[in-house]
Amino acid sequence: EMWPYWLMFAVPAIVALMTEVDRAGSRLPSVSVRLNEAWIAVALLLTLLIGFRYEVGGDWFNYFRYLDDVRWATLDEVLLMSDPGYQLISWLSGQLDWDVFGVNLLGGAMFAVGLVVFCRHLPRPWLALAVAVPYLVIVVAMGYSRQGVALGLAMLGLVALGKGATGRFVFWVMLAATFHKTAVLLLPIAALAAARNRILAFAWGTGSLVLGYFLFLEDAADSLYKNYVEAQYQSDGAMIRLAMNLLPAFILLYWYKRFRFSAAERKLWLWFAVISLGLFGIFLLSPASTAIDRMALYMLPLQLTVFSNFPDVISKETVTDVAAPVAGVLLYYGLVQFVWLNFAAHSQYWLPYRFYLLEAFS
Fold first, then answer.
1. Phi, psi for 355 (deg, rounded to 5)
2. Residue 256 — φ and ψ, nearest 5°?
3. Collapsing DSSP states into helix, strand and coil, what is residue 355?
4. What is the mean pLDDT of the chain?
């Protein structure tokens, strides 16, 4: 059944149409770190839908080996394993007899909080949430569990970096890397976005990447290279997913003066746009599409940022003018979700959506 996925998309889409078409696009009170009751409910609902999914996602059965790996391990041994953050929540779930659902609930909560906080810092948060559902929520959070958690934590870091808090960004990215090592690839962005001196930026970016490499990637570098590059893993649909980042990248680069960003945010998202274009170019030249595809996942927040600003970028800030682009963005992402659910090569692993608590008592 597809209807749970469509309900996930329809709710924020309807709220966006009802509440955000008359917003002037300035950074108004909705742009707040505080979460009201509605957004707390969103985070809880996302956590439950992600955490209690049952046999949903292309990697569903692969994650059971993490539970087996830590089942009889001590806490000290767990913390010394690869991806210690994910191993830790697997160990905790095993200790509490929560099985894979405990892992997915804890991971889903971290992703949901990161997504909700990120959306709340955008001019049209409900529109951003609707944009996030078709791919970021359904495919990534419900399919690539470890990288989904890493992306949720990274979004908390991006909020901090947009405020100029480089140290907090590094903290969240390092924490994200304990769930999926590839998160360290975000560290140089802090240098590019924050440093005013190019030499200092290069030094800071190189230093942070080297630190991240020795902390998280050194032991796994050979296996990552062999799995993603030498094996030339082909990721079905990578071209489409990379192209989806191209559209917001072009919009931002073309109209960047119209975006109501702070100085720190402007540099941050301009670099996201440039990197997205670069990844697409590398993809065209490289046979290792899975490696490029997984790196591009960390560029997905660009879509939320650009399209939550888009209605105000192209409108004359009247209700009539803004309503059409809001509806246009929603129509585009509704089409993305329709095509993915009905025609994607691996969408059958997500269908039907099954909720464990209903399965257990049916």
1. -105, 125
2. -60, -30
3. strand
4. 84
User: Would you state the structure tokens that stand for residue 120, as one six-digit string?
Assistant: 């709340």
Cβ–Cβ < 8 Å for 164, 192: no
- Token pair 């304990």 in the structure block, residue: 178
Tell me how far apart the alpha carbons of residues 35 and 209 are, in angstroms, rounded to a whole number: 33
Long-range contacts, stretch 27-30, CB < 8 angstroms, 24+ apart: 27/123, 27/260, 28/123, 30/120, 30/123, 30/125
φ, ψ of residue 53 in degrees (nearest 5): -65, 150
Taking the alpha carbons at both ends of the chain, their separation in whole angstroms is 16
Least confident of 24-28, 51-55, 324-328: 24-28
> Do residues 238 and 287 touch, judged by C-beta distance below 8 A?
no
Q: Which two tokens stand for residue 10?
A: 């329809």
Residue ranges in 20-164 assigned as alpha helix (H) = 37-51, 64-70, 75-79, 84-95, 99-120, 125-132, 145-162
Q: Give the CB-side neighbour count of residue 260, counting CA atoms within 13 A.
A: 17
User: Do residues 265 and 322 make contact, with C-beta atoms less than 8 angstroms apart?
Assistant: no
Q: What is the CA radius of gyration of the chain?
A: 20
Residues in the chain: 362
Higher-pLDDT residue of 98 and 32 is 98
Q: Which amino acid is at 70?
A: V
